[in-house]
Amino acid sequence: MADVPLTAADFPPPSVEEWRRLVDKDLKGKPFTVLQSPLEGGLSLQPLYTPQDAPPPAEPPGVAPYVRGTQPLGHTEGGWLLCQEYAGPDVAATAEALRDDLERGTQGVWLLLDAPLGLDVRDEATLARLLAHVPLDRTPVHLEPTTDVLRPASLLLEVLAKKAGAAKQALLGSLGIDPIAALARHGAAKVDVARTLAEAAPLVTSLLKDAPGLRALLVSSRPWADAGATSVHELAWSIATGVEYLRELERSGVSPGEAARSMQFALSVGGQFFPEIARLRAARLLWSKVVAASGGAPESQAMALHARTASATKTRRDPWVNILRGTAESFAAVVAGADSVSTSPFDEPLGTPDELGRRLARNTQLILRDESSLNRVADPAGGSYYLEQLTGEFARAAWTELQRIEALGGISKAIAQGDVARVLTETRTARDKAVRTRKLPIVGVSEFPHLHEAPVQREARPSAPANSEGAVTPPQPVRVAEAFESLRDASDRYHAAHGVRPRAFMANLGTVAEHTARSTWISNVLAVGGIEADEHHGFADANAAAELFAKAGTTLAVLSGPDALYPEAVPVYVAALKAKGARTVAVAGRPGEHEAAFRAAGVDLFLYAGADLFQLLKTLHTQLGVA
């Protein structure tokens, strides 16, 4: 028989209807919704996307509404701008870091200003020393002040005016005038948004004429992103900030198109890779629509978008994992078409990053550009049914929230009235619950912790002072890992005081094959709380296990084994262990219908997936005398 060549037509893909019938058969009566994955902000991911969900946008890259990026060729001509952020607190040391980093691949500088969390730059001379090694004629400099939002802008302009070779037309960057971010941080008692923008209006106009590459205004989502906002709220509140700036500047004689061209947006990028790509694409779409509705021409609708890796996702425990988090977040920012990207050093949560942390952060982007070739494709996300659909969903959800904020009178009033603080409290509570139950796992902290990791030491930064002025308390930065990290901190203090870690005696019942999966899980859970698992198995009887427990030097015992052995074994083992001094006996797994009987037998608590593990571990700390 002669060979017959095969073509794609010989393997037709199944239709969506055929796929759905097969899925329903495999679900065996369960609803199709079990295959959907919920996202924060009320969105959800579907198990399959098709051309019917979201056809590719008609507009190519570089064309309004800029879903596919603001440049026709994307990053293929030179790539995105590799920025690094600096926050001090030592100005001289930061100046040297700037010189080193610019010599080794950094292209742009982002300065977080104002003590105690940022660089303490109070006068022109200090800023000049800070930027002494920065070639201002070819290096974009971005300011992000956290208190006085006008003074740093004037200082930078004074330094630029005196710096040799820095022609105004060549200057790039942003002056960081962002009064709403300051309002979010400090409250209405210290910030007058309308007056600040009225004072900034002449500067906006003059820079558009003399230094068009130097943007006067900043829209930074940092105060909300660091305080626990969902991706939808962060996006919506950022667009709402831009809307208020357009409105207030128009009152001062600056047209919406001019105001839009004077704005730099800076958004944080979290750990959900594909949703974050969609969200950044949605940001450009929404801003284009806002500016167009305000009368701005297509060229003024292009959002200048800076993306920074999120602070809230980083951990102090097992901080090396932050390198991987930063890589995924930077990758998402680049694929989404951000104009500039800042990758935070892995050691940033520990204090002031050192040269190693900055180098690894910088090289993360250099590898994405030079070795992974992400700069060789214009809009790599374009045409994905999944991402196109999700982009639209993010845009619609954020637009709904934007309309709600506008109905309150705008973002400034929403902040002053406490609405933003209320939403942040709700979202943090929901996220904290997900973290505590490990529905939102944190590798190295709540999952697969390294109990005996060598600590990474960095110079500590000053803590942010509590700000309680005014009727509304401003949101405070929070990292998702903080709750579980507090348990590890308590374990460290116990170790320093006693020379050993708090310990649990684990009695593994049944054969190795029967108990290994559960005992491994329990050992991992105990390590999350900084508790060492002293594992034993192969007992002749409960009394033999109790004799070993008496020598273990702890008051906590954990029984772990197959469910089938529990009804008969648990009461006997609990009695024997408590007779030998066990103050607390925990059982691994859900008790189900046996809970009442087990508790009557003396079981104090149960450790199982889906429980509030933070509270359970906190209870074990109390029982073990861990403060």
From TrEMBL:
| Keyword set includes Transport | no
- Please list the cofactors this protein needs: adenosylcob(III)alamin
The region called Disordered is annotated at 455-475
Query: Which keywords fit this entry according to its UniProt record?
Result: Cobalamin, Cobalt, Isomerase
Family named by the database record: Belongs to the methylmalonyl-CoA mutase family.
Q: Which Pfam families match?
A: MM_CoA_mutase
Q: Identify this protein by name.
A: Methylmalonyl-CoA mutase family protein
Residues of the Methylmalonyl-CoA mutase alpha/beta chain catalytic domain:
42-456
